From TrEMBL:
Regions crossing the membrane: none
Domain C-type lectin: 56-165
Coiled coil: none
Pfam family for this entry, one: Lectin_C
Full protein name: C-type lectin domain-containing protein
Entries under CDD domains matching the protein: CLECT
PANTHER family: C-TYPE LECTIN DOMAIN FAMILY 20 MEMBER A-RELATED, C-TYPE LECTIN DOMAIN FAMILY 4 MEMBER K-LIKE-RELATED
SUPFAM superfamilies linked to this entry: C-type lectin-like
Gene3D superfamilies: Mannose-Binding Protein A, subunit A
């Protein structure tokens, strides 16, 4: 899989166009979703459970994204089975039925992507969700807090707890924020 990112500007804000080439089929996302410019110093294999923080405040997906970027780094991207395990450990302490993660659907091009633009083959979709299902606009990815704790697609205006990624050594808050 090959990625290229080019910066374009609009009248109001900078927008990144993300091109992903799978085999010979490119997809370009022109929806105004910003990809984080703050990249972790370690790859996903170098993360520890201490880098993930559950925020037990109910926010829409966009509000959760803004909160994570303002107070930490970003909504978490789940690109490995180990990260999934750590996320489910945090999600089990949530006060909502699901928790937002950094997974977004583009209705213009009909595919899911991680907002940190992490590449990975790992997937954990609940039956009837993800690539194999019919998707509407205005949806984002969440993790179930009980049961199999798989990924589901939900309307982004639902208010849920969420999981942020934070830098190592960030001692601003504990692993669970009330």
């Amino acid at each position: 899989m090959q990625h290229s990112i080019t910066q374009a500007t609009t009248e109001h804000t900078a927008v990144l166009d993300i091109t992903t080439v799978v085999a010979t089929a490119p997809y370009i996302t022109a929806e105004p979703v910003r990809v984080s410019t703050v990249m972790p110093t370690e790859n996903s294999q170098g993360l520890s459970p201490d880098n993930l923080i559950l925020i037990r405040e109910n926010k829409t997906w966009n509000e959760a994204l803004s909160y994570c970027r303002e107070h930490h780094v970003d909504l978490v991207s789940i690109t490995t089975e180990l990260l999934q395990y750590w996320v489910t450990e945090r999600a089990a302490n949530a006060t909502s039925s699901h928790v937002w993660v950094g997974l977004r659907f583009t209705c213009s091009f009909h595919f899911w992507f991680w907002i940190r633009s992490d590449a990975g083959c790992y997937q954990n979709w609940a039956p009837g969700h993800g690539s194999d299902s019919q998707q509407d606009c205005g949806i984002a990815g969440a993790v179930e807090t009980t049961g199999r704790q798989q990924w589901v697609s939900l309307e982004e205006n639902q208010r849920l707890n969420f999981i942020c990624y934070k830098c190592s050594g960030d001692s601003g808050e504990g692993l669970i924020h009330p």
